[in-house]
Structure formats: structure tokens, C-alpha cells
């Protein structure tokens, strides 16, 4: 099955950071989950953990541009 998993760290409205996870089957909208953090450091730390886990399961980085 062709599927995707997308991670991004973005600023939130309150001066913190949001880790946004999107996943699903290619060609569909998929699902989304947002995790809020007090600062960028925490969000990036969680981002790296998730990226490592997904690469271990067979997902590979791909540029959107």
C-alpha cells in the first residue's frame, strides 16, 4: 500500500511550537494530529524521535519541492 507520513514543526499563536503529524494513504487527505510544546527545542526533540521510528519502519524522506 502506498502511504505517506509527514512531520512539521511550526510556531503556534502563543509563542510555543506545534509538531504537526499527517499520515495516510497516498491520494487521500489522511489524518492529522497536533502536539503543542512550550518551545522549539521540545518539539524538535519529539520530531527527531518520530522520524527515527518511521525510518525504522520503512518510510523514507522525500522532498515536497
Mind explaining what this structure looks like?
The chain is of the alpha+beta class and 65 residues long. The chain has a single domain (1-55), classed as Single Sheet (q64v53_bacfr protein fold), CATH 2.20.140. 26% of the residues lie in helices and 38% in strands. The chain is built from 1 helix and 3 strands. Strands 1-2-3 form a 3-stranded antiparallel sheet, with helices on one face. It is globular, with a radius of gyration of 13 Å.
Task: Describe the SSE topology.
Blueprint (H helix, E strand, L loop, with lengths): L2 E9 L5 E9 L5 E7 L2 H17 L9
Antiparallel strand pairs: 1-2, 2-3
Strand order of the largest sheet: 1-2-3
Count the DSSP helices.
1
Beta-strand content estimate? 35-45%
Distance between the termini: 23 Å
Unreliable residue runs = none
Rg (C-alpha, Å): 13 Å
The profile of the biggest β sheet is:
3 strands, antiparallel
**Assembly classification:** single chain
| SSE order | EEEH
Question: How many separate domains make up the residues?
Answer: 1
Question: How many E strands?
Answer: 3
By CATH, the topology is q64v53_bacfr protein fold
Mean pLDDT across every amino acid position: 92
* Name of the CATH architecture: Single Sheet
- CATH superfamily membership: WGR domain
Q: Class, according to the CATH hierarchy?
A: Mainly Beta
Gross morphology is globular
Structural class: alpha+beta
Helix content class: 25-40%
Protein name: WGR domain-containing protein
Keywords: Plasmid
Domain WGR: 1-65
Organism: Sinorhizobium sojae CCBAU 05684
Amino acid at each position: 500500500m502506498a502511504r505517506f507520513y509527514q512531520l512539521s514543526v511550526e510556531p503556534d499563536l502563543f509563542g510555543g511550537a506545534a509538531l504537526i503529524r499527517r499520515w495516510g494513504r497516498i491520494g487521500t487527505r489522511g489524518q492529522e494530529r497536533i502536539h503543542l510544546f512550550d518551545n522549539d527545542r521540545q518539539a524538535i526533540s519529539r520530531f527527531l524521535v518520530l522520524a527515527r521510528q518511521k525510518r525504522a519502519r520503512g518510510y523514507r524522506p522525500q522532498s515536497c519541492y
